[in-house]
Design goal:
The complex is a heterotetramer of chains A (963), B (361), C (263) and D (183).
Chain A: H1 12-38, H2 41-67, H3 70-89, H4 91-134, H5 140-192, H6 194-206, H7 211-220, E1 244-246, E2 249-251, E3 285-286, E4 292-293, H8 294-297, H9 300-303, H10 322-332, H11 354-357, H12 368-380, H13 410-418, H14 420-423, H15 441-459, H16 476-486, H17 515-518, H18 521-529, H19 547-558, H20 575-587, H21 592-601, H22 604-619, H23 662-671, H24 697-708, H25 725-739, E5 747-748, E6 751-752, H26 755-767, H27 771-780, H28 789-792, H29 795-803, H30 823-836, H31 855-863, H32 895-898, H33 901-909, H34 911-914, H35 942-955
Parallel strand pairs in A: 3-4
Antiparallel strand pairs in A: 1-2, 5-6
Helix pairs in contact in A: 2-6, 3-5, 4-5, 12-24, 13-15, 15-22, 16-19, 18-19, 20-21, 20-22, 23-24, 25-30, 26-27, 29-30, 31-35, 33-35
Chain B: H1 2-11, H2 14-30, H3 40-59, H4 61-67, H5 73-101, H6 107-112, E1 115-117, H7 118-143, H8 168-173, H9 179-200, H10 216-240, H11 267-275, H12 284-287, H13 289-308, H14 312-318, H15 320-346, E2 353-354, E3 359-360
Antiparallel strand pairs in B: 2-3
Helix pairs in contact in B: 3-4, 3-5, 9-15, 13-15, 14-15
Chain C: H1 9-15, H2 17-22, H3 31-39, E1 50-52, H4 53-56, H5 58-61, H6 64-83, H7 93-102, H8 109-133, H9 142-164, H10 169-180, E2 199-200, E3 203-204, H11 212-217, H12 224-255
Antiparallel strand pairs in C: 2-3
Classes of the chains: A mainly alpha (963), B mainly alpha (361), C mainly alpha (263), D alpha+beta (183).
Chain lengths: 963, 361, 263, 183
C-alpha cells in the first residue's frame, strides 16, 4: 500500500467529541436503567413500616424500662459488689485452682483423644474381624486376638478419661464455689433486663442505631449489592396445593401481598392504616393455629387479585366505595385495571370466596353476609329461572296457580301481576311491568293486553272443585289474639301489627297484608285448617286449629284489606292490539298464510289465552309457580353456577356508564334489571325480561355476594372443606331447618327466635312493662331454645314428637305445629340435633337400677314443699300444679321418657347456663356449689342430692316410650 | 486366584498404592535400565497384560460391577488411551534422542521441510477420522445405554455420591485438603499453571518434535502432574472409593459398614498438647503459629534455598519473577503428595487449622 | 450423439452450470485446483493450502485436536436435536429422558451425545498431552496454548453442566458434590476462608443465599433453578464462548505457522 | 499490513489548527478521549455489574431449609424433643448445657431412629443401631454418629435451625460454635 494511509476522512477530534458525548449518554442511560429497576414502591412502604414499628417499639421499650423493679436491681447490684469483693479476696486461691484446671483440661483432652482414636481402631478392627470370620479365613483367630487387645486398651483409656473428667468436674465445682455467686447474680440482672434487651434488638433490626449501622443500612439496600443481606425484601408465601387455574393449566399461587401488608399477621397494628393493618379475626384467619393459616392459604385465594404483583396497581386492588376510589386515585393513581381476569374482590364481597372450598353447604360459619344472601336467594327463588349449583331439587318458590279460581278472582290477579308492590309493599313477588324498558304509553297498553292474556290463561279450565261455605261465624278480635299468640308471626308479618320492618325469617311466609282483598274467606278457612289440601308442597304447617279458632282467624284475616285506592280490575280489552300481538307471536312460528288461517279459527278468548300462554313462556312465570301446561318447561334464565368466574367482557354493559366489573353489573342488574336495554332498538320479544325484586340495598349486596361465590375454579381436594359424618348430618339438618324456618320461632345455633320480639311487643302493649323487661320475660314465653336439644331429649321421644307434637310447656300459647315430616326428615333432624350437641345417637344408657337405699326418700324430701317445692310449678301426670297455667312448668312424669339422664343433672346444677332466661330456679348456686344444697339431706353432698333428684324423676310417670 | 485377588486388594490402600505409583513413575522415566519398556514389544506386552487384568477383573463380581458401570467404561478406555499415548510419546521421544545422540536431526525434521497440499491428503485423513469416530460412537451407543437412575431426590443422598468422573481427581484431593484448597485453589492453580507454562519454561529446545532427553524436567513435571496426580486420582476416585468415601480394593465388596480408623490430629494439638503438654491457646493466631510458620517457610524459604542449590540454573536463566512463579507452582503441586504422606505417616489432619474462618491447610 | 454416451454421468454433472456455480475450479488433480479446492471452500479454508509433511503424520498429531473438534460438532448436532424433546424443568426433565429411550425416534441420540461428551473430554486431554510432548506450546504458540487451556476448561464445564440435565440421582448428586466446592471459594463462598469475616454485626454478607455456589445454582441447593441455569449454560452460554475461542484457536494455528514442527 | 513506522510520526494531513490554540486542542483532544473512554467503560462496568446482579434472584421458591424452633427455655434439660421429628426430621436435644439439633436419619441405612426415654438412647428400628443422647453411635451397625444441623439464635431470641449445613462428629465438626447453642 502506498504510504498515504495517514489521510483521514473525518476529523478525529470531532469523532472523539461525539464518542465522548455518546458514551456519556450511554453511561447515563445505563445508570438510569439500574436505578429504575432498583426503585420500587414496595421498598418505600417497607421503610414506612419499619419506621412505624420503630416508633411502637420505642414506646414499648420505655414501658418495659419503667417496669423494671428498681429495688430488686439495687439489691442485685449491691449483692454483686459484695460477691465480687469476696471473689477478689480469694483471687490467689482461684489462680492456683485455674492452673490446676488447665492441667486437668489437657489431661481430659489427651485421654479423650486416645480414647476416641482407640475406639475408631477398635471399630475398624472389629469390622475386619467380622469380615475374616465370615470368610472363614485363617487370619480370623489372629484378628480376634488383636481385637481383644484393642478392647482392653479401649477400656483402659475409657477409665483414664473418666478419671480425668472426674478431676476436671471436681475442680470446676471448686471454681464455681468462688465465682458461682457472682455468676448467678449477673444472670439475675440480665434476666431483669431480658425484655428490654429483646425489644432493643428488635428496634435495632428495624431502625439501626449509630452512624456505622445507619450507613450499613443504606449500603445493604443499595442498588447492585442488595442481593447480599437486604433488609428490604419481597415477602411471599407459596401456599401448598392452592394452585391457580390459568386456562387449562394449574400453576402454583405465589402471594406477595405481605411485601406491603406487613402487619397483617402481627398483633399491635389493629388501628394503623392500610397497608399495615392487622388482619381482623386472627382466630379465623392467618394465625398459625387458625383454620386458615397464611402460610397454607395465602391471601389471594380469598381476596383474589394478581398474586405475584408487588405493586398497588398490578395487584388489581378494587375499591369498596366511591370514597375509597377517590382516595386511591389520588394516592396511588388508581384506575380500573384492564386485562385482569380476577381483580381483587371489594371488601364487601369478600365472603364470595368462601364457597369455593366450603362447597355444598348452606351455612358457612363466620360468613354472615353470605349465609343471609343464600337464604334470600332461596326465599325469592332465583333458582326458578337461573340454574345454580347447590339449589337443585327445590320446590318452586311461589304457590301453584293451577286452581287459582278456588282462591281469588281474575280481576285481583290482573291488578296484582301488573304491580305486586302496590298491593303488598313487602311481597316477594317481583315486578315485571312498568319498568325501565316497558313503561312508555304504548308499552303499557301492550303489557296490559299481555296481562289480560296471562290471567285468561291462568283461569282457563280450572281444576274442578273448590271449598265449602264457612261452617259458622268467627270473631275477628279473637282471631287477632290467636294470630299473635299461636305462632303465626314466626313466619308471617302483618304491617298493621309491626312497628319495625320484620326480619328475614319473619318474612318466610307471605306477608298477610291485603289478604282479605285477595283470597276468598272459604279458601282462608280451608287453608289454615290444613294447608296441604290446596298446596301439597307448602311449607305452611298445620297448627291443629279447632273449627272455631279457624273461623276466628279467617274473620280477622278478611279484615286485612288492600291499601286505600287499590281496586282490582282488568284493563279494558283492546281487540286490535290483541290481534296484532297474537299475529306477531304466530308470525314468528308460521307463514303469513297459516297465520291468517289460524287467526280466523281463533275466538277472541282463544286469542287471549294463546297470548297468555306465549307470555308465560316469555316471562317464565312457571319458574316459581306450578302452571298447567308448563310442568316440565326448563327455566328461562342464564345459568349462574359459574357466574363468579364469568369473564367481564361477556357481560353486556350496553350504554350504561358503570365500572365494568362483575359485581357492579350484577348489582345494577338487581337494582334495575332492564336498564341495559337503554338506548337499544329491540322488538318486544327481544327486550330484557328479568323482573325487579323488592330488595333493600343491603339485601342486594348479600345476593351479589352469593352470585359472585359461584365460581368455576375448583380448589384441590386437599384444601376443600370436607364434611365428615357429623358435619354431613349438620348440613342435612340445616337444610331442613331452613326449609321449615324453625329459627322463626326457636333459637338454634345462636340465631332465630324472631317471634320473641312480637311476644315482647305484645307484653309491652298488654301489660305496660318496659321494653327491656318485656324482652327478658319473653324468653320464658317464647318457643324454647333448641340448640342443645340433642343433649336434652331422648332420640326416640324426639322422633315421635317431631312426627306428632304434644304440648310440653303448658304456659306457652305458641304451639309447635305439625309439619308432617316424613320418617326420613324426622330422622335427619334427629341426627342433626344429636350431631349439634355431640350426643350419642340413637341409643343412650339409662342409669343403673336399683337405686341406692335411701336415695328415693331423700329425693322426695328434696322435692317437698319444705325444700325445692318442685310440684308447685311442675305438672306431674294428671296432677296439675296450683295457680295460673302461665306459671306452670313441664310435666315431670314425662321426664323418664323424654329427657336424657345426664342432661337432668346438668340442668338442675345450673339451669341458667343451659337456658339463659328460664323460669326454673337455681337451687344450687354455681358460685358456691359446695355449700349451696341443704345440709341435712344425704350428708349435704350436692352431687348426691342432684343424682337422687334425677333418679327420682326417672321413676315418675309411665314406662319409657319404646321400651 | 483368591490369593492374587487378596494380594491386589492388599496393595490397594492409599499409602502403598500411591507410593508404588510414585516409585514406578520415576523408575520408568528416569532409570535407563528399564527404558526397554518404551519399546513396541513392551507396549504390546503391557497392553496385553492390562487387557488380561481387565478381562480377569470382569470375572470377579465386585470388580465387574465397578468396571461396567456405564459412566466408568470411558474411564477404562481413557486409561488405555492415556497409557498408550504416553508410551507412544516416550517411544518417539527416545527414538529422536537416539538420533540426536548420533548427531542426526529428529524424525520430524526429515519431513518438516516438505510441504504437502492439504487436498486431498489432510482433508481425506480428517474425513476418515470422522467416519471412524462416527462408527465407534454409534456402535458404542448401541452396546452401552447411557445411564439413567431413579428420579432426582434431594432428600436421599446416595452412598457414595460422586462428582462427574473428570472431577474425581479433585474429589480425591478433598480427602487430604479442605474444599477451598482441593476444590478451588488447586484447580485454579492447575489452570493458571497450564496457562503460565509457555512463559515459565526456560527450555527453548524440543519445539515441534518428540524428545525426552532435551526436556527431561518439563516432561517429568508435567507427566507427574497429569498421570499421577490427575489420572491416577481419577482412577482412585472412580474404582477405589466406595461407600462413605472409604477405600476399597478392586475385588473388595463395597460394604457400607466398612470402617477405617480415624485418628487424625492437627499440628497445633501435637505441638501444644503432646509436646508442650499445655492446653490449646484460646487465640487462634498463637495456637496456629507453628503451622503458619511452617507453611510460610515452605513457600518463602524453600524457593530461596532451591534457587541457590538445585534450581540454580533455572534461577539464573529465568530471572526472579518467573523463577518465583515456577517454584510456587511446583511447590503447590508437590504439596499434595506431601500432605498425603503427612496424613499416612503422622495422621496429620491440618497443618494450620482455623475452623473459625474456614481456613484449614 | 455417438460421443455423448461415452461421457460419464459424473462428467456431465461436472460440466453443468449448477456444479460450476458452486465449485469454481476444475477437478482437484493439479496443484492449482487442489489449492483452490481448499481456498475457495469456506469450511476447508480453515486449513492452509499446504502443510508440513511431518504434520500430516498421525504418529505426530494423533489427530486428537481434529477429533475434539469433530466431537464438538457431533455434540452440537445431537444436542440441538435433543433439545426438541427435552424440557428443562424439574417436572419434565426426567420423564423426557425416559421418553428418549422408550419412544422418541432415534432416541439413541442421547447415547451418542453422552458418549461423545466423554470421548471429547478424553480427546481434549490427549490433544493437550500431544501438544505438550512435542513442545508445541513454545514460542510462537504461547497464546494459542492459552486459548487451548481455556477450551479445555470449557469442555469440562460443558460436560459438567450437561451432567445435570437427566435429573436423576446420578445427575443431581454429582452436581451437588461438584458444586459444593464453590461453597469454599475464599471470600465468595459461604464456607470459604474469610467469608466469616464479611459480617456486619450479626448480619453475614456472604451466606448460602448469595455466594458463588448460589449464583451457579440459582438456589441454596440443586433444584429447578439450577436445572434451568445449567441448561442455558450447557446449550447456549458455554458453546457460544467455546465456538468463539475455537475460531480464534484455529485461526491462530494458521497464523502461528501451521501445525508445529521442528524449526 | 506493513505499517511504515515513520508514517505515524508524520504530521496529520488534516489542516492544522491555528498555532495559538494548538496546546489547548491537544489538551482538549486528550480530555475528550479521556471522558469518552472513562464513561464508556463506566457504562460497560455498570452493565456488567447489573448483569452479575441478575444472577441473584430476589425471591426463591425453595422449601424452607431453615425454621424457627421456639425459645430455648421451651426445652427441658436432659430431654430429647420430638416436636419437629415429623415436620422437619430433627431431634431437638438440650443436654449438658447446650442445645443441638440431630438429623433424624440413621447413619446406617437411612431409617429414622426413635428416642427411647426409658433406656436413654436413640435406637434405630431397622437394624438396631444405638446412639447416645449426644448422637454418638455405640451399638449396632451404624458406622458413624448421627449428624447435627447448624443451630443459632435468631434476632427475636428463638432458636433457628439451618438444615443446609451439617456437622459430623468424626470430622471434629461438633466443636464448631454453630453446631450447638449454649443454653
Amino acid at each position: 500500500m502506498p504510504a498515504k494511509n495517514e489521510e483521514y476522512a473525518r476529523s478525529l477530534p470531532l469523532l472523539n467529541k461525539v464518542f465522548a458525548w455518546s458514551s456519556l449518554g450511554l453511561l447515563a442511560g445505563t445508570v438510569w436503567m439500574v436505578w429504575d429497576d432498583y426503585y420500587r414502591p414496595w421498598k418505600r412502604v417497607q421503610r414506612e413500616f419499619h419506621a412505624l414499628t420503630a416508633k411502637k417499639t420505642e414506646t414499648a421499650i420505655q414501658q418495659a424500662e419503667q417496669a423494671v423493679d428498681q429495688n430488686a436491681l439495687k439489691q442485685i447490684q449491691e449483692d454483686l459488689k459484695a460477691a465480687q469483693a469476696q471473689a477478689d479476696q480469694r483471687k490467689r486461691e482461684h489462680d492456683a485452682l485455674r492452673e490446676k484446671l488447665d492441667r486437668a483440661d489437657v489431661l481430659v483432652f489427651t485421654t479423650d483423644t486416645h480414647y476416641k482414636n482407640t475406639k475408631s481402631i477398635y471399630d475398624a478392627t472389629r469390622f475386619e474381624y467380622e469380615e475374616l470370620s465370615h470368610q472363614n479365613s485363617a487370619r480370623a483367630a489372629e484378628q480376634q486376638e488383636k481385637l481383644r487387645k484393642v478392647e482392653s486398651l479401649l477400656a483402659e483409656y475409657k477409665l483414664a478419661n473418666e478419671k480425668a473428667l472426674a478431676t476436671q468436674a471436681e475442680l470446676k465445682k471448686q471454681e464455681e464455689a468462688i465465682l458461682g455467686a457472682e455468676k448467678v447474680l449477673e444472670k439475675k440482672r440480665a434476666d431483669l433486663f431480658a425484655g428490654v434487651e429483646r425489644l432493643q434488638k428488635k428496634l435495632a433490626a428495624v431502625e439501626p442505631q449509630g452512624f456505622l449501622m445507619k450507613s450499613f443500612e443504606v449500603m445493604r439496600n443499595a442498588p447492585l449489592v442488595d442481593f447480599m443481606a437486604p433488609s428490604l425484601k419481597i415477602q411471599q408465601v407459596v401456599p401448598n396445593g392452592q394452585n391457580k387455574d390459568i386456562n387449562f393449566l394449574t400453576i402454583p399461587r405465589v402471594d406477595r401481598c405481605q411485601t406491603c401488608h406487613l402487619g397483617t399477621d402481627q398483633t399491635g397494628y389493629e388501628n394503623d392504616p392500610q397497608p399495615f393493618t392487622t388482619h381482623p379475626r386472627q382466630e379465623l384467619f392467618l394465625a398459625g393455629k387458625s383454620p386458615h393459616p397464611v402460610d397454607k392459604m395465602g391471601c389471594t385465594i380469598c381476596h383474589r387479585g394478581l398474586d405475584r404483583a408487588t405493586d398497588f396497581f398490578d395487584a388489581a386492588h378494587w375499591p369498596d366505595s366511591s370514597e375509597q376510589q377517590a382516595k386511591w386515585t389520588k394516592t396511588y393513581d388508581w384506575a380500573p385495571k384492564a386485562h385482569e381476569s380476577s381483580p381483587m374482590l371489594p371488601k364487601r364481597f369478600v365472603e364470595a370466596s368462601c364457597l369455593a372450598c366450603h362447597s355444598g353447604v348452606v351455612h358457612i360459619s363466620g360468613a354472615a353476609k353470605w349465609n343471609k344472601g343464600r337464604d334470600l336467594v332461596e326465599r325469592v327463588g332465583c333458582y326458578g329461572c337461573h340454574k345454580m349449583r347447590g339449589f337443585e331439587g327445590l320446590r318452586k318458590a311461589g304457590p301453584p296457580l293451577t286452581r287459582l279460581i278456588w282462591k281469588t278472582s281474575p280481576d285481583w290477579a290482573a291488578k296484582w301481576v301488573e304491580n305486586p308492590v302496590a298491593f303488598r309493599p313487602a311481597t316477594w313477588m317481583p315486578r315485571f311491568f312498568g319498568l325501565a324498558n316497558n313503561s312508555s304509553p304504548e308499552e303499557v297498553a301492550r303489557t296490559r293486553e299481555e296481562i289480560r292474556g296471562i290471567v285468561a290463561y291462568l283461569f282457563e279450565k280450572p281444576e274442578p272443585g273448590g271449598f265449602p261455605r264457612l261452617p259458622g261465624k268467627g270473631d275477628p278480635g279473637k282471631g287477632e289474639k290467636l294470630i299473635t299468640s299461636v305462632g303465626c308471626l314466626g313466619c308471617h308479618a302483618i304491617a298493621r301489627l309491626e312497628k319495625t320492618p320484620p326480619t328475614l325469617r319473619r318474612r318466610f311466609g307471605p306477608n298477610l297484608d291485603g289478604i282479605g282483598s285477595k283470597a276468598k274467606p272459604e279458601w282462608i278457612y280451608a287453608w289454615v285448617k290444613e294447608p296441604k289440601n290446596y298446596f301439597p308442597e307448602t311449607r305452611m304447617p298445620n297448627l291443629r286449629l279447632t273449627d272455631q279458632e279457624a273461623l276466628d282467624i279467617t274473620a280477622y284475616l278478611t279484615t286485612l284489606k288492600a291499601p286505600e285506592g287499590w281496586e282490582p280490575g282488568e284493563a279494558a280489552p283492546n281487540p286490535p292490539l290483541l290481534d296484532r300481538l297474537v299475529e306477531q307471536q304466530l308470525r314468528a312460528r308460521m307463514t303469513a298464510e297459516e297465520v291468517q288461517a289460524k287467526m280466523a279459527s281463533f275466538s277472541e278468548h282463544d286469542k287471549e289465552v294463546y297470548l297468555g300462554q306465549r307470555m308465560i313462556t316469555r316471562y317464565g312465570c312457571f319458574g316459581c309457580h306450578l302452571i298447567r301446561g308448563f310442568e316440565t318447561t326448563p327455566p328461562i334464565g342464564t345459568e349462574l353456577s359459574e357466574e363468579g368466574s364469568k369473564e367481564v367482557d361477556r357481560f353486556d354493559f350496553g350504554y350504561v356508564k358503570i365500572p365494568e366489573t362483575r359485581h357492579d353489573w350484577i348489582t345494577q342488574k338487581l337494582e334495575n334489571p332492564r336498564i341495559f336495554d337503554q338506548g337499544k332498538v329491540k322488538t318486544s320479544d327481544e327486550k330484557l325480561k328479568m323482573p325487579l325484586f323488592n330488595f333493600t340495598p343491603e339485601e342486594r349486596e348479600m345476593v351479589v355476594t352469593v352470585v359472585l361465590s359461584f365460581v368455576k375454579e375448583k380448589p384441590p381436594l386437599s384444601s376443600t372443606y370436607l364434611l365428615d359424618a357429623r358435619h354431613k348430618a349438620l348440613e342435612a339438618g340445616r337444610r331442613l331447618v331452613q326449609e321449615h324456618n324453625c329459627q322463626g320461632c326457636h333459637l338454634l345455633e345462636g340465631e332465630g327466635q324472631e317471634i320473641r320480639a312480637t311476644i315482647a311487643r305484645k307484653m309491652v302493649e298488654e301489660e305496660g312493662i318496659g321494653e327491656e323487661d318485656a324482652d327478658s320475660r319473653a324468653v320464658a314465653f317464647s318457643p324454647p331454645f333448641i340448640t342443645g336439644e340433642g343433649a336434652r331429649v331422648r332420640s326416640d321421644w324426639l322422633f315421635h314428637f317431631l312426627k306428632g307434637p304434644t304440648p310440653i310447656r303448658p304456659w306457652l300459647a305458641a304451639r309447635m305445629p305439625t309439619f308432617g315430616f316424613t320418617d326420613e326428615e324426622a330422622d335427619t333432624l334427629l341426627r342433626y340435633f344429636t350431631a349439634l350437641s355431640e350426643s350419642p345417637f340413637p341409643f343412650e344408657t339409662p342409669p343403673p337400677q336399683p337405686f341406692p337405699p335411701g336415695e328415693m326418700a331423700a329425693a322426695k324430701t328434696l322435692t317437698s314443699k319444705d325444700y325445692f317445692n318442685c310440684f308447685s310449678c311442675h305438672q306431674q301426670g294428671a296432677k296439675k300444679p296450683e295457680g295460673d297455667p302461665s306459671g306452670w312448668a313441664p310435666d315431670l312424669a314425662l321426664a323418664n321418657s323424654r329427657l336424657r339422664p345426664d342432661w337432668i343433672v346438668d340442668w338442675i346444677k345450673d339451669p341458667q347456663k343451659l337456658y339463659p332466661g328460664t323460669k326454673m330456679p337455681t337451687f344450687f348456686d354455681p358460685a358456691s356449689f359446695d355449700t349451696s344444697g341443704p345440709d341435712d339431706v344425704l350428708g349435704g353432698d350436692e352431687n348426691l342430692q342432684i343424682k337422687a333428684l334425677r333418679d327420682y324423676l326417672l321413676t315418675l310417670g309411665s314406662a319409657r316410650m319404646g321400651s | 486366584m483368591q490369593g492374587f485377588k487378596a494380594a491386589v486388594d492388599g496393595i490397594c490402600n492409599p499409602p502403598i498404592l500411591f507410593s508404588l505409583i510414585f516409585a514406578l513413575f520415576f523408575v520408568a522415566f528416569l532409570w535407563k535400565r528399564v527404558h526397554w519398556i518404551w519399546t513396541p514389544k513392551a507396549c504390546i506386552l503391557l497392553l496385553t497384560a492390562g487387557l488380561a487384568f481387565v478381562g480377569f477383573g470382569l470375572t470377579d463380581p465386585n470388580f465387574h460391577a465397578i468396571l461396567t458401570k456405564p459412566d466408568n467404561v470411558p474411564i477404562v478406555g481413557m486409561l488405555f488411551l492415556v497409557g498408550f499415548f504416553s508410551w507412544l510419546s516416550m517411544y518417539l521421544g527416545l527414538k529422536n534422542d537416539r538420533r540426536t545422540a548420533a548427531n542426526l536431526p529428529p524424525v520430524e525434521k526429515l519431513e518438516s521441510e516438505i510441504k504437502i497440499l492439504v487436498w486431498p491428503d489432510l482433508v481425506y485423513t480428517e474425513m476418515l477420522c470422522m467416519i471412524l469416530w462416527s462408527v465407534l460412537l454409534i456402535v458404542w451407543s448401541i452396546y452401552l445405554k447411557a445411564p439413567i437412575e431413579e428420579p432426582a431426590n434431594p432428600a436421599k443422598t446416595p452412598n457414595p455420591s460422586k462428582a462427574p468422573w473428570y472431577f474425581l481427581g479433585l474429589q480425591e484431593m478433598l480427602v487430604y485438603y479442605d474444599p477451598w484448597i482441593a476444590g478451588v485453589l488447586l484447580p485454579g492453580l492447575i489452570i493458571v499453571g497450564l496457562m503460565a507454562l509457555p512463559y515459565i519454561d526456560p527450555n527453548k529446545k524440543g519445539n515441534g518434535y518428540f524428545t525426552f532427553a532435551e526436556r527431561k524436567w518439563e516432561i517429568l513435571t508435567f507427566q507427574f502432574g497429569f498421570l499421577v496426580l490427575w489420572v491416577m486420582m481419577i482412577i482412585t476416585g472412580t474404582f477405589f472409593r466406595g461407600p462413605n468415601q472409604n477405600f476399597f480394593g478392586p475385588f473388595e465388596h463395597w460394604d457400607v459398614h466398612k470402617l477405617v480408623p480415624l485418628s487424625n490430629i492437627n499440628l497445633s494439638e501435637v505441638i501444644w498438647v503432646r509436646v508442650f503438654n499445655v492446653g490449646l491457646p484460646q487465640n487462634w493466631l498463637v495456637r496456629e503459629s507453628f503451622g503458619i510458620t511452617l507453611v510460610l517457610a515452605y513457600f518463602l524459604l524453600v524457593p530461596m534455598v532451591l534457587g541457590r542449590t538445585l534450581f540454580k540454573s533455572f534461577f539464573e536463566k529465568m530471572g526472579m519473577v518467573r523463577y518465583q512463579i515456577l517454584v510456587f507452582l511446583l511447590l503447590c503441586m508437590v504439596s499434595l503428595p506431601i500432605k498425603m504422606y503427612l496424613r499416612w505417616l503422622f495422621n496429620m489432619h491440618y497443618v494450620v487449622a482455623i475452623p473459625e474462618y474456614f481456613f484449614n491447610i | 450423439m455417438a460421443e455423448a454416451p461415452k461421457k460419464s454421468l459424473f462428467a456431465l454433472l461436472r460440466e453443468s452450470q449448477v456444479w460450476n456455480s458452486i465449485f469454481r475450479h476444475g477437478p482437484p488433480d493439479n496443484t492449482r485446483n487442489r489449492s483452490l479446492a481448499v481456498l475457495t471452500n469456506v469450511f476447508l479454508h480453515l486449513h492452509p493450502v499446504k502443510v508440513r509433511k511431518s504434520g500430516l503424520r498421525l504418529k505426530y498429531t494423533w489427530c486428537a485436536g481434529g477429533t475434539t473438534f469433530f466431537l464438538f460438532l457431533v455434540e452440537t448436532v445431537t444436542g440441538l436435536l435433543l433439545m426438541f424433546y427435552y424440557r428443562p424443568t424439574s417436572e419434565y426433565a426426567f420423564s423426557d429422558i425416559l421418553d428418549l429411550r422408550s419412544q422418541v425416534p432415534l432416541g439413541i441420540m442421547r447415547e451418542i451425545h453422552r458418549w461423545g461428551a466423554h470421548a471429547m473430554v478424553i480427546a481434549v486431554w490427549l490433544h493437550m498431552l500431544r501438544v505438550f510432548m512435542t513442545g508445541s506450546y513454545k514460542p510462537p504458540r504461547e497464546f494459542n496454548w492459552n486459548i487451548g487451556v481455556l477450551l479445555l476448561v470449557l469442555t469440562l464445564l460443558l460436560s459438567f453442566t450437561g451432567y445435570l440435565l437427566p435429573w436423576d440421582q446420578l445427575a443431581m448428586w454429582a452436581v451437588t458434590v461438584g458444586s459444593n466446592m464453590a461453597r469454599a471459594t475464599p471470600f465468595l463462598g459461604n464456607e470459604g476462608p474469610g467469608a466469616a469475616l464479611l459480617k456486619v454485626g450479626d448480619i453475614s454478607l456472604v451466606h448460602a443465599g448469595d455466594d458463588a455456589r448460589f449464583a451457579l445454582l440459582a438456589g441454596r441447593f440443586v433444584g429447578s433453578g439450577a436445572l434451568l441455569r445449567f441448561y442455558v449454560l450447557h446449550c447456549v452460554g458455554i458453546p457460544l464462548v467455546a465456538a468463539v475461542l475455537m475460531a480464534v484457536h484455529f485461526w491462530r494455528v494458521r497464523k502461528d505457522g501451521g501445525i508445529s514442527g521442528p524449526l | 499490513m506493513p505499517d511504515d513506522p515513520k508514517a505515524s510520526a508524520a504530521p496529520s494531513p488534516v489542516p492544522a489548527p491555528p498555532a495559538a490554540g494548538e496546546g489547548v486542542t491537544r489538551r482538549g483532544f486528550l480530555s475528550w478521549i479521556g471522558v469518552a473512554w472513562v464513561s464508556f467503560s463506566g457504562a460497560l462496568g455498570v452493565a456488567s455489574l447489573s448483569t452479575l446482579r441478575y444472577f441473584f434472584p430476589n425471591v426463591l421458591f425453595e422449601p424452607p431449609q431453615t425454621f424457627k424452633a421456639g425459645f430455648p427455655d421451651e426445652y427441658i434439660a436432659g430431654q430429647v424433643d420430638n416436636r419437629f421429628k415429623e415436620s422437619f426430621g430433627v431431634f431437638m436435644v438440650r443436654d449438658a448445657g447446650v442445645i443441638y439439633v440431630l438429623k433424624a436419619v440413621c447413619t446406617h441405612l437411612g431409617c429414622t431412629p426413635n428416642w427411647l426415654e426409658a433406656e436413654f438412647k436413640f435406637k434405630c428400628p431397622c437394624h438396631g443401631s444405638g446412639f447416645y443422647i449426644s448422637g454418638i453411635n455405640f451399638e449396632g451397625p451404624a458406622p458413624r454418629p448421627l449428624e447435627r444441623y447448624r443451630v443459632v439464635l435468631a434476632d427475636d431470641g428463638q432458636i433457628l435451625v439451618d438444615k443446609t449445613r451439617i456437622y459430623r462428629e468424626e470430622k471434629g465438626e461438633w466443636q464448631d460454635p454453630e453446631s450447638f447453642i449454649v443454653a
